User: Fold this.
Amino acid sequence: MQIETLKVFCDLSETESFTKAAQINDITQSAVSQQIRSLENQFKATLIERSKKKFRLTREGQILYEHSKQIIQTYDMLRAQLQELRDVVSGTLRVATIYSIGLYDLPPYLKRFLRTHRTVNVHVEYHRANRVYEDVLSNVCDIGLVAFAVKESRLEVIPLWRDKLVLVCSPRHPLASRESVPLSSLRGERFISFEPDIPTRRAIDKALRAEGVEVQHVMEVDNIETVKRAVEIELGISVIPQSTVATEVRNGTLAQIEIAGADFARPVSAILKKSKVLSPAMKQFISILKDTKPSPDGGSDTPEPIPPAPVAAPAPRPAAAPKSSSGSRRSAAPTV
Assistant:
């Protein structure tokens, strides 16, 4: 019996999915089944109740899981400490992120990290928020990046930076000539909105309600790219993270206006499973994320201070995005 076999069993127990256990360990589903049967033969016990109903461990399986988890955690701690003694930062780092952070904010951090740690293999998965939480809790990924982080007893939330939210409109819109506007100026405007279950939409709705402002939600979508294209063809105006609109403002296809009299920003955080043993690679990556917010050219800017762990509910689970040849999942239309 090998450590890797116990890890596969633990991953299967936590994800309740042969597919996910295979994905985490970079093996086939058939190999997962073979390793489980090997454990059952060794311990002469049935570990999983095999039925078409909900996944469930037997009593013997639960005992093996509890002890195997301790063995895996001890082994991970040993490996991490030995790497630190040798000043080694290597291995694989798995990051799950919501689309807008992954496509607009994350690349400069990855550039800095990989420039220093060339022996680390980084896999990035792009998902909606609820899937990021699921993957962190089930050990499919090591680190998650989300906006408006949800408080969860099994998670550690690390505040990172605040993304300013700005009003965007067509350069021909009457508001386009203004440097800043109060929220009251949006009253009655045709509004291109995110879907109601997306955390950024909830924050925008809350701010509008607080000011007694009603807008016309003429279109509701799940991604920033569609919002920007709709605003460009003058279907309405919108409020989106400033970091996602820099190209359009530079090219003159959209106008950006600050929102006056409000602390209007989305807090970005990293989430980790509390029981996770941090490898040297994870520690170094988190350190870079907490340091300063890099600009797209690889420099760095001082981020706005962030309050601890604001709360918002994650969005309903969508279908998985197609997997690219690089091993990352992404969509042409990033969600927030």
About this structure: The chain has three domains: 3-84, 88-161+267-301, 163-265.
